[in-house]
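Revision sheet: structure tokens.
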Amino acid sequence: HTPEDLSIVAWIASMRCPGHGNFFGEVARCCAGRLDGLTPGSLVRLLKALATVKTDNPVGFADVLHDVAENHLQRLRHSELCGLLRSAVVASINVAYTDCKACID
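Predicted:
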């Protein structure tokens, strides 16, 4: 599956079954470092989805966030940048990300 497909599926799954940590951990593993094909809206949607769910891969969110910050910020409009920042804040208070909070902050 492409990261674009996974972004869509993760967004839907985050609303229907946010407790499936293995699934969301795998999404983060598959997408980190492979975000070039995602539209700016899909980047933000992926981060919003991952920020709110349980995961077995908390560092995966930080890896995706870092990839976006290092390589994709220039593609984001102001509203998308606000969504990215909101996702970082939401993840920083999500207990699933306690182990990597320093990476997110």
